[in-house]
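Example S7 (structure tokens).
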């Protein structure tokens, strides 16, 4: 089994900090118009950032204090919460919720890097499972190869099978979630937490960019049909 997280002995402190983030910040700092009473008025992007911080704190605290299956469930719930919050975030920011220019290029580069890291983790895990060189080679090569095929078919920017956005996110969650589990099994829970948080942030930005691209295509088609 995985070794405890490096900060597990301080999990009560982490849980307390997480609760402050979960309960306190989003309740105080609110965008005008989002609630009837606004204690401290802030721009929309600040509200979005506080909610994201709140969700990431929940993920980090769950990995620090709870078993892996429960932590993964929290991670999945956070991803679902982010997906459901996107329309509200667009409203709070006036629709300006995409990465442009250099930020977009950096995020795309990081996305590719995280995909390679996930495949490397799967290969690392496969090469350590069981005993015997043959099994190590089969799993060490076959596991990342299978993940790469699934990714190319369903989750790549030019995927052969066009899935709705929820389907693409499910495939990404499967690949990245497996990498997180295997990294934890290999005894690196801290790295697994860091990997999951970074991948989640990167995927959220990429998802917003993809949705914006879909909206542009739909608008152009609609205007073309009504000319």
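Recovered sequence:
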């Amino acid at each position: 089994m995985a070794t405890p997280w490096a900060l597990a002995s301080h999990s009560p402190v982490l849980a307390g900090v997480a609760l402050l983030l979960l309960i306190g910040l989003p309740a105080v700092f609110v965008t005008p118009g989002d609630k009837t009473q606004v204690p401290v008025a802030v721009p929309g992007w600040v509200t979005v950032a506080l909610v994201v911080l709140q969700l990431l704190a929940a993920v980090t605290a769950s990995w620090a204090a709870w078993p892996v299956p429960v932590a993964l469930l929290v991670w999945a719930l956070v991803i679902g919460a982010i997906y459901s919050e996107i329309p509200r975030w667009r409203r709070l920011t006036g629709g300006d919720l995409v990465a442009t220019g250099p930020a977009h290029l950096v995020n795309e580069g990081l996305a590719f890097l995280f995909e390679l890291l996930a495949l490397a983790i799967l290969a690392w895990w496969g090469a350590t499972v069981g005993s015997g060189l043959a099994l190590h080679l089969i799993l060490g090569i076959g596991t990342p190869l299978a993940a790469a095929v699934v990714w190319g078919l369903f989750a790549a920017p030019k995927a052969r099978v066009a899935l709705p956005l929820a389907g693409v996110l499910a495939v990404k969650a499967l690949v990245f979630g497996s990498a997180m589990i295997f990294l934890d099994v290999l005894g690196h829970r801290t790295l697994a937490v860091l990997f999951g948080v970074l991948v989640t942030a990167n995927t959220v930005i990429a998802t917003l960019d993809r949705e914006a691209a879909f909206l542009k295509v739909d608008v152009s088609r609609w205007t073309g049909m009504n000319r």
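Notes on this example. The chain is about 75% helix and 0% strand.
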